[in-house]
Design a protein that fits this description.
heterotrimer, A mainly alpha, B mainly alpha, C mainly alpha, A: mainly alpha, Four Helix Bundle (Hemerythrin (Met), subunit A), 7 helices, disordered N terminus, C: 2 domains, 3 helices
Chain lengths: 203, 537, 94
């Protein structure tokens, strides 16, 4: 950037407020899908009940636990950086990224299973299902797909944080980026907390 | 930074030169100008499309284009005007240039994000243009992208949807930046109720941008998913619900109307006190009416769907809230009139445009109530009455406020003054042309002329032809206005720092403003519209 | 970019929060087995909301932020609830 004469000073409260506002927009992005879910579910309660049985609640529960634990490790990593323990902070972030990987592998097998059963939008099997079940699987793929995209973005963000801790750019004095990265990761968790019962449990 | 050899003092326009210094500048004033120039180009493009449509309707039957071309034209006209011109318009141009100065800050909270927003905006705008010229034919769904047609049409709908999605993202980032700026960057002593009213209106606007835009974002993604993966949320054949699309679309697109009109109200609220040399009448009610419009405006989306088969209960609910939102709007009109009452009114071009804003906005507002009542809506829905109504609000309201704003802040932005006589003559053409263009549409709309038709029954010819003549007069006025401004931005007489004797902060610094606005951050000790302050003596 | 007077949550707090969240997850899985009719959905959503509140409060440090931010977060969730409710004025009565 050639014209950076303005002071580069972004204080922590300003930066965090920007991140929170951004999280609001993310909530409303998923909010649109929740509205569709609510309307469709009220319209096709029985079909939703039936289609949800197809989903493996055990895989869903595993992923819930994985994300909850990763949320804790990312929070602990922030604590560690505040206490000037960069090594611990990096270790915890690494565990977080591993857990993100576990989540994605799980999701890969779960989606793969659905595809092998020809349960994907536009498939021949799907056309024969009752309307409500088509809607359910449409929402399932759209919601978990968009969520997966956020897991990936969050993972990239935390990787950047990891490297910046390593290079000392994030330290016990300046850790706004890590705070914001953690906030983003918690949002990913937060959305899953709603998705899990709505898709896997309400059978 | 010190290599300038001109005698002019250094300011944001000349402290660095060359195209590259503009494209990489994080200075809020330069970014504002980037928006101004790009939006002007897109406005001219879409205005030409509008003119071509009017020529087509000069006489019944096909005159200069086919029905399919006409469908493409009203769609692209709508997409450009709504998503590229009027929604970002005032906030991105005058908000960027003036907001930090008016609250006594050196820049917005996130300058780099601000520049990034402009690039996102340009990307979206280019995609919008591309949808027009890419293989296949231009989108013909109308700017509303209603399903099921938009899910089936063979035209470049996906590109246009992506364009709207990307433009929405730019809008979100600008809103986010402004909210944080207003919360965190106000000069010392500038409490919330010492903040001028244009920043207040931007604050209300920014919240809508932030909280409504994501909904349309996901909705457009759902239509894209529908077209590419056959998911079928809105397709009745697969169990989907087309009316649900309308809900989601208008949850954003109705508040978007307030994204356009709130900053417009903010601009004229700055102009009336300055040209009456009198404090604004009812500062606090104006603040609360802005917030009330933003809040209540979020809940009235269903009044676009009265004939779409929504439940009776929700129809009267939405109708009731629509009438409710008229109250804060009316409060503002009374405040503007009372501000002028008893002041030393100086009818310079900015005030002329601002007064015509009140006139046109009031017509647009009242016809909005006609559409908001359930019984008359059945008759008027999807007629030219609707077209006339929203052009009175968007063009007569937002457009004229934009013209008022550019005439008001022009000497501050460029440090030069335009020709008053030319500005006044152009205003005459614009005002007469505007009313001649759109008022007949009210009448033929009531008589039953549907919107978006390229042909019409000969009994409507009187109204349609008058309207086309109006379009030519309007364009003449616009050319006059923009020539005056462009020419005098370089050749005009040097303008003093405070030509209108304004009292808000932007008038207390040199014209054009220095690169970092203030040598010393001002300390605010009183409310914004006090005309006995020492600066104006 | 300097961070100052930020609250630092202890590891014990983080572990406790995780434990509570896991317990609530278990409850919500078990509660589904009990047939409560229409109340099943409400139950699942209430439990999810409690979990979300805990994540917001402790993991996201909302408890230690200023009142303004708390109001904003509350307002955003409230706004979304109102939007859903208004949409259902249509669907419920149709």
């Amino acid at each position: 950037m050639s014209t950076t004469e303005h002071s580069e000073f972004i204080d922590s409260d300003t930066g965090k407020m920007g991140m929170w506002l951004f999280l609001f927009t993310e909530l409303f992005l998923f909010g649109g899908l929740f509205i569709v879910y609510a309307v469709m579910r009220s319209k096709y309660a029985a079909d939703f009940h039936h289609a949800a049985l197809e989903l493996n609640a055990f895989v869903g529960a595993t992923n819930t636990v994985v994300l909850l634990v990763s949320s804790m490790t990312v929070a602990m990593s922030l604590t560690a950086i505040q206490q000037k323990r960069g090594g611990k902070a990096m270790g915890l972030l690494f565990i977080t990224l591993l857990l993100a990987g576990v989540f994605m592998v799980n999701k890969y097998f779960e989606w793969g299973h659905k595809f092998s059963l020809h349960l994907y939008p536009g498939s021949d099997v799907m056309q024969t299902l009752p309307h409500g079940e088509i809607m359910f699987f449409g929402l399932y793929f759209m919601m978990t797909g968009l969520h997966l995209l956020h897991v990936i973005i969050g993972g990239v963000l935390l990787t950047v944080v990891l490297f910046k801790i390593n290079s000392g750019k994030i330290n016990s004095e300046h850790y706004l980026l890590q705070e914001n990265g953690a906030l983003y990761w918690h949002l990913v968790d937060l959305i899953w907390i709603f998705l899990f019962p709505l898709l896997y449990l309400i059978t | 930074m010190t290599k300038s050899i001109t005698q002019e003092p250094l300011n944001y326009l000349n402290h660095k030169t060359g195209l590259w210094s503009w494209l990489t500048s994080t200075d809020h004033k330069r970014i504002g100008l980037l928006y101004l120039y790009s939006i002007t180009i897109f406005f001219c493009t879409a205005a030409v499309l509008g003119l071509l449509m009017r020529i087509e309707k000069m006489a019944p039957g096909q005159t200069i284009m086919t029905a399919q071309t006409y469908n493409g034209m009203f769609t692209i006209h709508g997409i450009i005007m709504v998503f590229i011109v009027v929604i970002p318009g005032l906030a991105a141009v005058f908000g960027n240039i003036m907001l930090p100065i008016m609250i006594g800050a050196k820049d917005v909270a996130f300058p780099k994000l601000n520049l990034f927003s402009w690039y996102v905006f340009i990307t979206g705008a280019m995609l919008g243009l591309y949808s027009q010229f890419a293989n296949g034919h231009s989108p013909d769904t109308g700017w509303t992208f209603y399903v099921p047609y938009s899910a089936q049409a063979s035209s470049n709908v996906v590109i246009a949807l992506t364009a709207a999605f990307v433009l929405g993202f730019a809008s979100i980032l600008t809103g986010l930046n402004f909210i944080v700026t207003i919360h965190r960057m106000r000069a010392p002593g500038m409490t919330w109720f010492r903040m001028p009213l244009f920043p207040w209106s931007l604050y209300a606007t920014a919240w809508i941008q932030l909280l409504a835009t994501p909904i349309v974002g996901i909705t457009l993604l759902m239509v894209i998913a529908e077209r590419t993966f056959h998911i079928g949320f809105f397709d009745p054949a697969l169990g989907g619900d087309p009316v649900l699309y309308q809900h989601l679309f208008w949850i954003y697109s109705h508040p978007a109307v307030y994204v356009m009109i709130l900053p417009a109200m903010g601009v004229v609220t700055e102009i009336f006190p300055t040209f009456s040399q009198k404090p604004v009448f009812g500062y606090v009610p104006i603040v609360f009416s802005s917030m009330a419009i933003a809040l209540v405006g979020y809940f009235v989306w269903g009044h676009h769907m009265f004939t779409s088969g929504i439940s009776y209960e929700s129809r009267w609910f939405f109708s009731f809230l629509t009438f409710l939102v008229a109250i804060p709007s009316a409060i503002k009109v009374f405040n503007w009139l009372s501000t002028m009452y008893g002041g030393s009114v100086d009818l310079k071009p900015p005030l002329l445009y601002a007064i015509s804003f009140i006139f046109l906005f009031t017509i647009g507002g009242f016809t909005g109530l006609t559409l908001g009542s359930l019984a008359t809506n059945i008759q008027l829905h999807n007629t030219d009455f609707v077209v006339a109504h929203f052009h009175y609000i968007i063009f007569g309201g937002m457009g004229f406020a934009f013209f008022a704003g550019i005439h008001y802040w022009f000497p501050k932005i460029y440090g030069r003054m335009y020709n008053f006589k030319w500005a006044n003559i152009s205003w005459g053409f614009l005002f007469v042309g505007f009313n001649l263009l759109y008022f007949p549409l009210f009448i033929i709309g009531i008589q039953g002329m549907p919107r978006r038709y390229f042909d019409y029954d000969p009994k409507f010819q009187m109204g349609e032809s008058l309207s086309t003549i109006g379009a030519f007069i309007l364009i003449t006025g616009f050319i006059g206005m923009i020539t005056n401004l462009i020419y005098h931005s370089r050749k005009g007489a040097i303008a003093p720092a405070n030509p209108w004797h304004g009292v808000t902060l932007e008038w207390q610094i040199p014209s054009p403003p220095p690169h970092e606005n203030f040598d010393e951050i001002p300390i605010i000790t009183h409310e914004p519209y006090r005309f006995d302050n020492p600066y104006t003596k | 970019m300097k961070n100052h007077d930020n609250h630092i949550s202890s590891d014990t707090t983080n572990w406790t929060v995780l434990l509570v969240l896991l317990i609530l997850t278990t409850i919500s899985i078990l509660a589904i087995k009990i047939h409560l009719g229409a109340f099943t959905v409400a139950m699942a959503l209430i439990l999810a909301s409690i979990k979300v509140t805990i994540v917001l409060t402790y993991f996201m440090h909302l408890k230690f932020e200023n009142t303004l931010l708390k109001l904003m977060v509350g307002g955003v969730f409230l706004l979304f609830a109102v939007v859903i409710a208004i949409t259902f004025i249509d669907y419920y009565f149709r």
